[in-house]
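Problem 3 from the worked examples.
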Amino acid sequence: MSAKKTLIVPIKVHAIYQEDDSAVVGQTFNQYPNHNNLKLEVKMLKLKTSTTWSFLLILALSVMLFTWACSQSEKTEQTATPKPDAEPTAEAEAFEYTPAALASLDSYNLNCGGTQIDVASPVAEITTAIGDSSFLYSVKPLTDCSGIFHRVLKGMKERCPEQAYPPIETYRDTRDLARWYNEQGKLILVKDAIAHSDLIKPGAVMFYGQRATEYKDFTAEDLFKRGTGINHVGVVVKVHKDDAGQVASYELFHGHGRPGKTPASTTNYHRREPTRATYPPYGNGTEQWVAFATLVGSADKMLTAK
């Protein structure tokens, strides 16, 4: 009986597969005792290769899913409804510049450097400093009534430069100043002093007519005429009220008196009930109060808050 012979088939198989995290490249299988063993080894090689690619595919899908989730989150944040801006406060609203509205205020305030201030404080500081300088009336430049008033404006401009001020080159005298305030929409004609007494507060600009002259029916243009219109100007620095809350009198800072004799100063003889029959209510001696304006600030920059 003849002996069984084993068939040896010399086959070389080159494969790339992963084993224990190490790449095995070009591994050679020289001989296999039979085809069954060869098939088994090839199957094992295919299995390892399939497992490796499955792992890589899962990893790639995971990365893609994570990236997509992040992008969706960013889009959500970008498309989120923005929060509405804060509602504007009453202080930022434009002020209705009318006698009734002005009379309702406790004081004349304005926006100075982004802060709301009462004009009374800087006016007191400025007029005190000018008064201490003892500028005699109508001796040097800017020492008459309108010149002293321009000095007050200069002090305000140094503190609140963003506000509007009349250029001295084109609005030098009292009538020019009244015209400038009228152009700004801030000049209010006063035909009844008692009815307009609530306008008198620190920071009020007071315009007066000619001496011993009664003004009844007049226009702004009438007040701008030299010799018959406005004759004097000053600024209120303090107000005194009676028990009923009415303005009993006020103190006025202005250039006044005899040229070369009287310094710019504050006077207190401006009364609701004058001590002399020839003095009109709230006037400057015999000069009638004929027009009013707030010292600084365009009409659309006044603030409503008290």
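Problem 4, a separate protein:
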Amino acid sequence: MKLPNSIPHLLLTFSLIALMGNIPAKSQSSSTPIDSTILLPKSNTSLRPKVPTRQMITCTYDGDTLYFEFLIPEGTCGLYLYNPVNGETISTSFESEESPYVHVGFHSSAEITLTTEGGIEYYTEW
């Protein structure tokens, strides 16, 4: 069975499109690492079991700025960053409804505590 001339051209075109989809995209800023982490509620000190939280807070650090994303906005939040390497601390507050970001400068490691308006504390480190 002989195929019309247009079908091999279509197959070649679709093959090239499929191959182009597998080429990894280059990062816009290859000099700055980007780390994302999920802030977790601080551990429960009572012996009673707690109901799992529906909240998820994602924190992304680009080497200079922290970006937060809240699944459920929490109002005014207090941020406390501690760098265990040099002892530097940063304390500030922001509104969680507005896709917040906080300029903190470069830190090779840090411990972050976030306190919400309702008094719930979240924690992460890198």
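Solution to problem 4. The chain has one helix and eight strands. The beta strands are 35-41, 57-61, 65-70, 76-82, 89-95, 101-103, 111-115, 121-125.
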